[in-house]
Structures are given as C-alpha cells and as structure tokens.
Amino acid sequence: MNDQHSFLDAGRIDSDPYSRFLSAEFKLNDAIIRARMNESFEEFLEIFDKFYAEDIEVSQEEIGEPIRGKTRVGSILLNFLIPLHITAEVGGLKVSIRQTAETRDVPDETNSSWRLELVGSSGKRCALTWRTFRKWKQDLVVREHHYQLERTGDPLTFEDLWGTLHSPELSQEAAGSNEENERN
After folding, report:
1. Which residues pair with 129 in a beta bridge?
2. Are 104 and 131 in contact (CB under 8 A)?
3. How many other C-beta atoms can be found within 10 angstroms of the C-beta atom of residue 134?
4. Strand 52-60 to 140-152 pairing
5. pTM to 2 decimals?
C-alpha cells in the first residue's frame, strides 16, 4: 500500500527560500498596485505595516544616510501619501502605478522597476520611474533601496492639479455670490 497522496511535498515548497521570497515580493507589489490612492492612503500604510520589518532600512541613490526604523520611514511615507491622496480625491489627480519584476540569483533579494504616472485635471502628465532593490528576512522587507530615479514630463503645477476648482469662471461666480450675500 502506498501512502503517498501527491507528487509535491508541501514542506519542500515552503522550505525553498527563493520561491518564498518571490511569493512575498509578488504579494507586496500586487498590494501596492491594487491600492487606490484616490480612495484612501491608509491602505498603503496597512501594506507598509504588513510587509516591512521594524528595523527597516530605506535608502535612495544620491541621498545621504539611509533612514532606519519603521517609525521614521512610516512618517516620511505619510508625508508623501497624504498630499497625493488629497490631490487625487479632491483635485481629480489620476494616479497609476506599474511594476515589472526583474530576475535575481540571490534568494532573499528582489529587484523591480516601477513607473508612477500622474495626470492632472488639465490633462498634463508627469511620470516617475525608478528601480527598487529589496532584501528580505523571513517574510518581511529589512532593506529597500531606490535607484535610477527619472522624471519624464514637466512637474505638474497648481493649475494642472487644481485648475478646475480655481478656474476664473468659478472665482467670478464666488465673487458674485459674496456680493449678493453682503447686500442681503
């Protein structure tokens, strides 16, 4: 009698570090891509809490010392996410992000290429591209380095972001209603 019920030994798959880290990388990147900036920035903070170690170290090409610790990195992430979320939710900024995985030979290290595209309410576009290196320990990112950062397109201006909310027509309507309220 044969007690073997499958061709794959689940214990061997889980113990394969390369597959485990690639799976964690896929789950992290998929969560980032699926998150909706115009609906909530909190979702990105939940992703950060779930996938990053307490002793995370983040660095960027051409910037001095790495930032260490989940609290410090989380604070910087929040300072980036809140204005982006408000502009997307209220100002109509369209935010899209794409990611491409890159192959790597070291089991606990992953690389990927990213593209963040911002489209203002005016239709003007600006894109940021960069590459990310991550070092994993167990199922958490312990080091992340951003490099080869590039911007295409001019930076979006206040008018590109908020133009529909602050158009001359709206300003004239607001001024007219203020004059009418003062008379009453």
Report:
1. 115, 150
2. no
3. 22
4. parallel
5. 0.76
**Counting Cβ atoms within 10 Å, is residue 129 exposed (0-12), middle (13-18) or buried (19+)?**
middle
Positive/negative CA dihedral, 124, 147, 59, 57: positive
CA distances from 77 to 3, 38, 71 (A): 52, 16, 10
Q: Where are the domains of the chain?
A: 13-177
- DSSP code, position 9: -
**pLDDT tens digits, 104-150:** 778 899 999 999 999 998 899 999 999 999 999 989 999 999 999 99
Q: Which parts of the chain fold into alpha helices (H)?
A: 10-15, 17-34, 42-51, 70-91, 158-162, 168-183
Query: How far is Cα 100 from Cα 117, in angstroms, rounded to an integer?
Result: 15
Span 13-177: which CATH code? 3.10.450.50
Given CA atoms 157, 162, 163, 168 in this order, what sign does their dihedral have? negative
Q: Provide the token pair at 64.
A: 């001095």
Q: CA–CA separation, 115 vs 128, rounded Å?
A: 6
Taking each helix axis as running N to C, give the angle between helix 17-34 and helix 42-51, from 0 to 180 degrees, rounded to the nearest 10.
170
**Residue 2, SS3 per DSSP:** coil
